[in-house]
């Protein structure tokens, strides 16, 4: 069909021309609007598959099939992306069906927190490496501190006991996940063989114990025993 003149007066010809131009053009499907949740979920999938070292803004964009600028709209830096990931991990902690006794409530919250970290490869490393003052993170802390205050602790002891529980949970879980990911055998044996550290040599088999659940419960017992005794007394 010939190119239309500058001024077209034949309406039927104009309709035919328009149809001939557009009929062979590929149809485009509008891409759904990307929201922050999709970005964080893609980053968490990358984390679970390849570990924390593989998480990046570019890798997240590639996984989503979008340009990096699209991801940058929701997370300006890798540090911010990690904060959002940490928040999503902590958001998996549920607050329903908790024990009524405050000390046992703290214990159960710590257990649920640990499970949320273990649910993601390098989850503890991601959370430990961020400072996410976000709703889920603050909400978890508020529930634990409220339970600690309910045991009769003053404000400072409640705050510091919370941090002790936090450090126990993050540190032990991070050790567990790092050990799982490593192909190397970690043992104190060679370093203690010459007898220079007799006390460590005596307890070495306990230092290297990989019963992480038992170690976690032991640590909680030490932190919560005074609270439980106060409740019972």
From TrEMBL:
Record domain HTH tetR-type: where: 33-93
Organism: Kitasatospora xanthocidica
DNA-binding region range list: 56-75
Lineage, highest ranks first: Bacteria, Bacillati, Actinomycetota, Actinomycetes, Kitasatosporales
GO terms, molecular function: DNA binding
InterPro entries according to UniProt: Homeodomain-like_sf, HTH_TetR, Repressor_TetR_C, Tet_transcr_reg_TetR, Tet_transcr_reg_TetR-rel_C_sf
Keywords, comma-separated and alphabetical: DNA-binding, Repressor, Transcription, Transcription regulation
Pfam families: TetR_C_1, TetR_N
Protein name: TetR family transcriptional regulator
Keyword Transcription regulation: yes
GO biological process assignments: negative regulation of DNA-templated transcription; response to antibiotic
């Amino acid at each position: 069909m010939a190119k239309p003149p500058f001024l077209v007066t034949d309406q039927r010809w104009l309709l035919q021309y328009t149809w001939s131009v557009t009929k062979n053009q590929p149809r485009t499907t509008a891409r759904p609007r990307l929201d922050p949740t999709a970005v964080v979920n893609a980053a968490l999938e990358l984390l679970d598959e390849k570990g924390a070292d593989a998480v990046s803004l570019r890798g997240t964009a590639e996984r989503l099939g979008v340009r990096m600028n699209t991801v940058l709209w929701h997370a300006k830096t890798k540090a911010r992306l990690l904060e959002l990931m940490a928040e999503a991990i902590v958001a998996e902690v549920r607050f329903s069906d908790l024990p009524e006794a405050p000390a046992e409530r703290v214990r159960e919250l710590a257990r649920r927190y640990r499970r949320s970290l273990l649910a993601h490869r390098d989850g503890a490393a991601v959370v430990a490496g961020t400072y996410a003052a976000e709703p889920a993170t603050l909400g978890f802390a508020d529930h634990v501190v409220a339970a600690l205050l309910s045991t009769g602790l003053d404000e400072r002891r409640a705050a510091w006991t919370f941090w002790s529980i936090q450090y126990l949970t993050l540190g032990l879980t991070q050790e567990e996940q790092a050990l799982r990911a490593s192909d190397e055998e970690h043992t104190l044996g060679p370093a203690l063989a010459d007898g220079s550290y007799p006390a460590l040599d005596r307890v070495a088999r306990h230092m290297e114990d990989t019963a992480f659940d038992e170690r976690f419960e032991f640590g909680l017992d030490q932190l919560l025993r005074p609270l439980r005794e106060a409740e019972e007394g």
